[in-house]
Structure formats: C-alpha cells, structure tokens
Amino acid sequence: MAQKKKQKQKPGFEDYYSEIYKERWDALKSGLLADADGYSISDGLLKPYYLDMASAAAARTLDVHPGDDVLDMCAAPGGKTLLLALALKGSGSLNSNDRSSDRRRRLKDVIENHLPTEVRENIRVTGHDATRWGLHEKDCYDRVLLDAPCSSEEHVLKSPAHLNRWSPSRTKQLSIQAHAMLAAAVDAVKPGGTILYSTCALSPLENDGVIAKLLKKRSDKVCIETISPDSENLSGLNAETTDYGLHILPDRNSGYGPIFMARLKKF
C-alpha cells in the first residue's frame, strides 16, 4: 500500500505571529495581554466615554471639520462616532453605520447617552452592508472612516475558545472583506475627499496588504496621504511608520493599541 502523503501542518497562532514579529513577539504579546490605563473623552459629552487612546487618535486623524458630510462605515460600539460628531460641532452630517443589529443597538445607546440633543440631530444610524456601499451612494461624503472588522489578535489571545479555533485563513478572509469595504469607501467619498482606513490587527495582510491591493486596482482614483508620526493627533503615542501608514503597538505604548491607520485622498 502506498504511503499517504503527510499534509503540511498549518502554523498555529504563536508560530504565525512570532514569524512576523521575530524577537519582538514576546514583548508584543505581553503588551496585548496588559490592561492599558483608561483613556476618556469628556469635553462636549453628557458623560465621559472610555476608549483606547490609539483608537481616538485614528478618528481624529480623519481631520473632520464643521460642515463636512461624514460616513463612519463600521461605527459600533461608538467611540469614534462620538469624536466625529464632536468635530462637526452640530453642523454637516454624520452617517454612523453598522450591519449587525445587536451592535447597532449598542451604537444607538452610546450616541443617545453621551451626545447632547443639538449634536445628535445631524446623526443617522444605518445598517447597510459596507462592502456594497458604492452601489447605492456614490460621491456623497467629504470624509469616510473605515474601522474595518479585523483579526483583533488581542481578543483572540484573551479567549481560549477563539485561540483554539484560530487559523491563518482567518486573516486572509478578513483582508478580502476589508478590501471590498475600502473599495466601497472610495466609491462613497467625493472627489477631493479623504478616507481613513484603520484596524486593530497585527496581521500585515489586513493592514498594508489591503492598501497595496487597493492601490494596485484603484491607482487612478486614490493616493496615499502621508500621516506624520509627530502629528498633534498622535500626541503621547509612539507611532511606527509602515509602507503606507502608521502602526501603534502596545509594547511601546503602555498597552494602547494595536491600531493601524492609513489615509487616502480621492482624485
């Protein structure tokens, strides 16, 4: 009987990320498992809201101004939406979207419990599929924030059930979905408008990989806008430059992050 060929074993979570981050992985893993100090936003809110400082920096890097029409494509749980709404100062418009009905309920609660009435009046909450946005709204928004669903390795590490189910195919599938959402964001933003793409992923496939794929297919539509790691919006954070954006990693930021961000301009 012919001997069966041995299937090549897929790398586990530890093997996969230690191969990417090499000798840095142990410190990075410790940073992911650490609990960062609470960071709150309160100015202009009915009560403080706590979120990751790096997440707040990503929302502020979209550079929203009063009067802008803004889309938050994957808005739940709502911390970034609060920052976008505050930046509008009651003018312009904000569409806060999330496809999940459960997450959308949480998003609505965050908006109602934290924003004054006069700020909430310019916000609508929707439940569209972000990958198909360009089919029903094109060239509509001055600013688009896409905080894409991602591997969220921090949560995987903290959940034995998720860790046991993890495989390399997860990050590949999420990168494909993120690219579809980013392409839809390009359709949704006005010429001259800005897109801020962000994730809380460590995987390069979901970060620079998504941007590289978009630029290959849409180089006639968008270009990268450089984000300075010394920007005022990133004050207090150590942001590392990548091929197309910045990465804020918890081992060098007192537990804040990970957050990847890249900013694109539509022609």
UniProtKB/TrEMBL annotation:
Biological processes per GO annotation: rRNA methylation
Catalytic reactions of this protein: a cytidine in rRNA + S-adenosyl-L-methionine = a 5-methylcytidine in rRNA + S-adenosyl-L-homocysteine + H(+)
One matching Pfam family: Methyltr_RsmB-F
Record-annotated SAM-dependent MTase RsmB/NOP-type domain positions: 1-267
PROSITE patterns, sorted: SAM_MT_RSMB_NOP
Active site: 200 (nucleophile)
Keywords: Methyltransferase, RNA-binding, rRNA processing, S-adenosyl-L-methionine, Transferase, Transit peptide
Binding site for S-adenosyl-L-methionine: 74-80, 98, 129, 147
SUPFAM superfamilies: S-adenosyl-L-methionine-dependent methyltransferases
Domain of life the protein comes from: Bacteria
InterPro entries: MeTrfase_RsmB-F_NOP2_cat, MeTrfase_RsmB-F_NOP2_dom, RCMT, SAM-dependent_MTases_sf
GO molecular function: RNA binding; RNA methyltransferase activity
Signal peptide per UniProt: none
Protein family according to the UniProt entry: Belongs to the class I-like SAM-binding methyltransferase superfamily. RsmB/NOP family.
PANTHER family named in the record: 5-METHYLCYTOSINE RRNA METHYLTRANSFERASE NSUN4, NCL1 YEAST -RELATED NOL1/NOP2/FMU SUN DOMAIN-CONTAINING
Protein name, UniProt field: NOL1/NOP2/Sun domain family member 4
